[in-house]
Amino acid sequence: MLKRVEVVVVGAGSAGCVTAHRCAEMGLKTLLLDRKPQPLVGHKVCGDEVSRSHFDATGIEYPQGEEIANIITGADVYPPSMEQELKVRGWTEFDGWMLNRISFGQRLLKAAVSVGVSFHPNCHVNGPVVKDGKVMGVEYREPDTGGITTVAAKLVVDASGFAGVIRSKLDDPLVEKRIAKTDIALCYREYLRLKMPLAEPNVARVFLGARVAPAGYAWVFPRGVSEVNAGIGTTGGESRGSPKSYFLKLKAEYPLLFGSQELEGGGGAVPVRRPLMSLVADGVAFVGDAALQVNPIHGGGIGPGMRAGIILGEVAKEAIARGDVSAEGLWDYNSRFLSDYGRRLASLEIFRRLLQDVSDDDMDFGFSRRLLEAEDLMSANRGDAFSLGIAGKLRRVKRSSGRLGLLLKLRKAAGLMKKMNKTYLNYPAGSEGFESWVRSVNNILQSAHFE
Ligand SMILES: Cc1cc2nc3c(=O)[nH]c(=O)nc-3n(C[C@H](O)[C@H](O)[C@H](O)COP(=O)(O)OP(=O)(O)OC[C@H]3O[C@@H](n4cnc5c(N)ncnc54)[C@H](O)[C@@H]3O)c2cc1C
Questions:
Q1: In this structure, which residue's CA is closest to atom 52 in ligand 1?
Q2: Does ligand 1 come within 6 angstroms of the Cβ of 292?
Q3: For the whole model, what pTM was predicted?
Q4: In degrees, to the nearest 5, what angle opens at C-alpha 53 toward C-alphas 84 and 30?
Q5: Ligand 1, atom nearest to 188 Cα
Q6: DSSP string covering 10-30, please?
Q7: In degrees rounded to 5, what are phi and psi of residue 332?
Q8: Could you read off the pLDDT of 103-159 as tens digits, one per residue?
Q9: Pick among 3.30.420.40, 3.50.50.60, 3.40.50.720, 3.10.450.50: CATH of 2-48+102-177+275-338
Q10: What is the 3-state secondary structure (H, E, C) of 141-172?
């Protein structure tokens, strides 16, 4: 069977729904495919936290009613010692909501369908259809007959999440097919009913350090006064325990979780590096986790994927109207996303590497002496690096007595974040300058080691 559309979006997660919605809103005939049955669209093992800032930036309606499990108005960040935590308040890039993912996902899907998106559930996409190096469509298995249907599309959007079912099957110099294990967080997460109610039910807790989560972090996000979403993500792959084993250890050691009742548990994976360096190739674009559009320090990907989906829908419309869906014709999506929000994510990859490389002992020291303050963390998350201005420098030198090495690492990270920022601001205007730009990014990353 052959179907013809202008855009086919593979995957009806938050990124796919928002992209399909925007494409249809712009007048494009859009097909959205997902392997899930319709009532499960939105389901995802996730921390469920999304910042209000993403809705303000995109104009997508705030979560409401059933979609909201809780409101988040701050975060406490704990060092390995679990003492002297950093209390971050007024963090506009983080504060927001704990979502009920299915309700939220169903709303995004319904909104997409209401503007004309044709949604087909239970359709497992096998991969792209490629001709002369250009993506021409996708193939999927029909739910009823098991037969293979080919969809011919002017533009294929891979929004299939971590799996990247289209991306991972393309051989194109612009496409990063595989992702390094060190850039993937393997996670385990549970919903827990607590024995004791929370004193601060609107404050998220984040735990750093190799003892708790090797090269990763753990979280306890409240879903109400006595229910939490708690989990752990570790990166690096080999020779470590499973994320579940670290999570069970945390549960056994952290008094808040003593005697809690598991309501639901499960694993997942999330990319934690800069986004794909090109989000497009001939006839194809990537969005959401499939494009690695995730905050590298906390793994938040709902917001970045929605931001990118809005841009991609607009660029798709222009490219299709011009009759040019080559990589060059779609390049505006690269320029608009990567030089703006992507820039933050890329500079946060440096910060993630810093957090991973610093020893638990140094991290405890840094927290106890406040070598980084809440404002620095917020500023780093904006991708602005932390300024370490003259007064700040002197204050920190004094506080870092005996551990100048640690201060130097902080300064090195701040410098590299600035450099990364600048490099992304100069994202090439077309594929011509792409190779040399990639070399510049890789040069910065080569220096980003802080052992
Ligand atoms: C444990 C964990 C905790 C997290 N915590 C947070 C958090 O607190 N806040 C936050 O913002 N982000 C968090 N994230 C990341 C966030 O969940 C993702 O970034 C976000 O959901 C990605 O959305 P997406 O639409 O790109 O992909 P997904 O939500 O993964 O959607 C992909 C869709 O594609 C479909 N699909 C896949 N393969 C095929 C195929 N072959 N054929 C057809 N359909 C297919 C899937 O069924 C799915 O519906 C977390 C991730 C994990 C793993």
A1: 46
A2: no
A3: 0.96
A4: 135
A5: 1
A6: E--SHHHHHHHHHHHHTT--E
A7: -55, -30
A8: 999 999 999 999 999 999 999 999 999 999 999 999 999 988 889 999 999 999 999
A9: 3.50.50.60
A10: ECCCCCCEEEEEEEEEEECCHHHCCCHHHCCC
